[in-house]
Amino acid sequence: MELLDCFDRALDEFGSRVHAVDPGRWHHGTPCAEWSVRDLVNHVTGEHLWAPVLLSGATLEEVGDRFDGDVLDDDPVGTWDRAAHASKEAFHRPGALDRPVHTSGGPVPAGDYARQMISDLTVHAWDLARGAGVDDRLDPELVSEVHAYTAPRAASWRGAGLFGPPVEVPRTAPLQDRLVAMLGRRP
């Protein structure tokens, strides 16, 4: 699958679940123990507010704290939609994937940044579905792409505290279950 097609699908997976959140479930828990549904959507929305700025060449210091705290205000769905739209436009801008992007881990190729965002969107779409009580089945092709990207990096990401220890599942479990289990979630 082409990188930008993968990115678009991951945005759609997460976005469809944002739109499916029942108003009474925004404060329900998610598989990310410290985050409610709203906290999770705020986290991912914040990342996508950063994307256009970082893809334009800004450093973390130049961005500062402008996307800290609650970015959702009174309109979580609308704020997500605006952030996702701006992020998609930024990733699709001609030449956007040709330069490095400044991240907390240092400068990385924009393609790697896109893959990290795809992985985050995909896994958090599952987390959001679980917290919101909606369908958690993800696009199988997207799951395959994310699994292939994250499997060789999972141990180092886990060491950096990005997620908990893996959950044991049978080797014959569906790939989606193996993906979320590898990232510390109980399918």
From TrEMBL:
Residues 8-129 form the Mycothiol-dependent maleylpyruvate isomerase metal-binding domain. It comes from the Bacteria. Pfam families: MDMPI_N. This is TIGR03086 family metal-binding protein.
